[in-house]
Amino acid sequence: MKHIIFIAISTLFSLNAAANRINNEPIKIIKPASGLNTDLVNLGKKLWFDPRLSKSNAISCNSCHNLATGGVDNLASSIGHQWTIGPINSPTVLNAELNFVQFWNGRAKNLKAQASGPIDNPKEMAFTHTLAVDTINSIPQYKKMFNQIFDSNEISIDEIATAIAEFEKTLRTPNAPFDLWLQGDETALNKIEKEGYALFKQKGCTSCHHGPLVGGTMYQKMGLVKPFETKNADIGRAAITGKESDKFLFKVPGLRNVALTYPYFHDGSIWDLKQAVTIMADIQLGQTLTDDESTKITKFLNTLTGEQPKIVLPQLPISTKNTPKPIML
Amino acid sequence: MKHIIFIAISTLFSLNAAANRINNEPIKIIKPASGLNTDLVNLGKKLWFDPRLSKSNAISCNSCHNLATGGVDNLASSIGHQWTIGPINSPTVLNAELNFVQFWNGRAKNLKAQASGPIDNPKEMAFTHTLAVDTINSIPQYKKMFNQIFDSNEISIDEIATAIAEFEKTLRTPNAPFDLWLQGDETALNKIEKEGYALFKQKGCTSCHHGPLVGGTMYQKMGLVKPFETKNADIGRAAITGKESDKFLFKVPGLRNVALTYPYFHDGSIWDLKQAVTIMADIQLGQTLTDDESTKITKFLNTLTGEQPKIVLPQLPISTKNTPKPIML
User: Which annotated residues bind heme c 2 (chains A, B) (predicted)?
Assistant: First the structure.
């Protein structure tokens, strides 16, 4: 009887601790995707992997946001049409829906607004929206799928973007060790990882890196306390607003799966996560971390790697005589 | 009772027909892969999708042999390092183990001998075998897998190629309508498709296109009866043997999944399958096909599309400080 009471009390305690953590911690749980349109997801998945959305027919969404490698390409910046080196590091698509805006400079308000951008960016897929639509429209299996889903005879770039965005919404990574701990599993984090998280809060990292994404809720100046030294020419949010005060303001990147998404920062200049932590503390918070502190925070960040989406490669419908031919040069 | 006897006789008849077809038809069934080493397959699958086997870290085996599109890239010739346009059309990896030699000119005797070729080809992945080995060796999860499988401490390019080849051996496409028909299912082909197959034999196509791959058993001169007009500079088998008589000899490509593997011929110049059929009959067999004959043969060729391999995208192990950095330019 005593034993049962003890278990009951400790269960209550742990349920209480879990409720407290979920409510009070600045980092929130990543939930699996739900309520999505399955047909639209399946269509979007085909389009995601379809290189025919690029001028060369050689670049798909997955080329730069590779779902085998954390939704990124692990390059400082991506390679686009005719081997053009992109101007900025490709952010991960994992959990990307949870960002308050899309792109580093926030120029798209949501995934759908983002999805059509790379298709006609001359440095990326280098196509035109018209040709992308013509391509998809020339493929009977696609045409049928669009017809059934959107109940219209004319495929549009808007519908293409809607489908890709719906697929991207499935790309959640729940059940990271940190999330299990948030839900009350004491053993999900070890002592060092818990100390790392305590330091992460104590040093002020959570002032920007909070919420389910551990970021992605605001813009912040890169080099808030000390200037960030980079060869990258991007001026951040100012390119959109034209405001001097928005110079070098970027969306705070989420840190979910950060162990997978090297190299770091908008210029992709730092390959080592611990070094990235040290630099951030220095230039954003004016804090000089000890080696031990950087190590612990890094170990905590490693606990943000969740279950990766299980992706069965789609089979793409074949082209027809009417499909525009690839233009490689 | 009469009814039962009738069923028994027709079953016997159909079993007999199936046995006859399997034994007597020049095209043989594609069987699913069997007897493979699962650990080696899983390792090979990761390597297959790993762009770190290329100098830029942007090109994987799957870039040019895309398993979402029939094991090819549907380009006249592939795009390699720094947007180099390759010299020849990328053949499919589906069922590729069944080819008597690998590459168009047969310079590799099997999949393993082939697999390491693109890695250090300056026009393809442009790496060196030494750097590829260093890369894989710098990644603990890979090191562990190699260790367990090969029981040695030193990863070699030979082991990398062995693993990739083992994965490729899984890429069979059984149960094409034609194979079901070969096995006695009368309804698997319609009247036109059966007529197409009869024409395929009658016109002499099976003299080269036979066996389980419907090809891949011999070399043949491209332009046997009339010269093949092409801008492609490849001289075929002669580049390997140095023999004048081997000029323009290429491995006869298999026609399995040919509906998916456009564009056609070693120069990738023809996008339409029916047109390819007409040209082949003309320049290889000296036969002028009617439009109706080309249509029927093409419809038969469409029945060679089998069940595509179900590929779950692997999660690639992360790089470390010791992993060589990508060299994009």
Answer: 205, 208-209, 280
From B168, B203, B236, the end of a domain falls on B168
Mean pLDDT for each 10-residue chunk of chain A (329 residues)?
60 72 96 97 98 98 98 98 98 98 98 97 97 98 97 93 98 98 97 98 98 98 98 97 98 98 98 98 98 98 98 98 96
Residue A318 belongs to some domain of the structure: no
pLDDT 10s digits, A227-249: 999 999 999 999 999 999 999 99
Please tell me which residue of chain A has the smallest CA distance to B57: A75
Q: Which two tokens stand for residue B18?
A: 């199936």
Tokens standing for residue B195: 């007529």
Q: Which residues of B are catalytic?
A: 124
A25 located within any domain: no
CB contacts, 8 Å: A75 with chain B: 56-58, 326, 328
Residues A68, B314: C-beta atoms closer than 8 Å:
yes
* Structural domain boundaries, residue B151: 38-168
Tokens representing residue A263 in the block:
């190299």
Q: How far apart are CA B178 and CA B190, in angstroms?
A: 10
**CA dihedral sign, ordered B91, B94, B98, B102:** positive
Q: Which residue of B has its CA nearest to A77?
A: B328
Q: Is A262's CB within 8 Å of B313's CB?
A: no
pLDDT at A9: 61
Q: Does B164 share its domain with B42? A: yes
3-state class of B245 per DSSP? helix
Read off the pLDDT of residues B28-49 as tens digits, 9 standing for 90 and up.
999 999 999 999 999 999 999 9
**pLDDT exceeds 80 at position B113:** yes
Give the CB-side neighbour count of residue A28, counting CA atoms within 13 A: 12
Cβ distance A49 to B68 less than 8 Å, yes or no, reads yes
Cβ contact, residue pair B83, A83, below 8 Å: yes
SS3 content of chain A, % helix, strand, coil (to 5): 45, 5, 50
Name the interface residues of B facing A (CB cutoff 8 Å).
49-51, 56-58, 63, 66-69, 73-76, 79, 82-83, 85, 259-260, 262, 271-272, 308, 310-316, 318-319, 321, 325-326, 328-329
Predicted pLDDT at A6: 56
> How many Å apart are CA B52 and CA B59, to the nearest integer?
8
Residues in chain B: 329
Q: How many separate domains does chain A show?
A: 2
Backbone angles phi, psi at B90, to 5 degrees: -75, 120
- Catalytically annotated residues of A: 124
Which residues of chain B make contact with A74, given a CB cutoff of 8 A?
A: 57, 319, 326
A165 and A42 in a common domain: yes
pLDDT of residue A7: 59
Mean pLDDT of all residues in B78-86: 98
Residue A255 shares a structural domain with residue A276: yes
Closest approach of B14 to chain A, Cα-based (Å): 34
Tens of pLDDT, residues A120-173: 999 999 999 999 999 999 999 999 999 999 988 899 999 999 999 999 999 999
Within a domain: residue A27? Answer: no
B208 has binding-site annotation: yes
Using an 8 Å CB-CB cutoff, list chain A residues near B69.
315-316
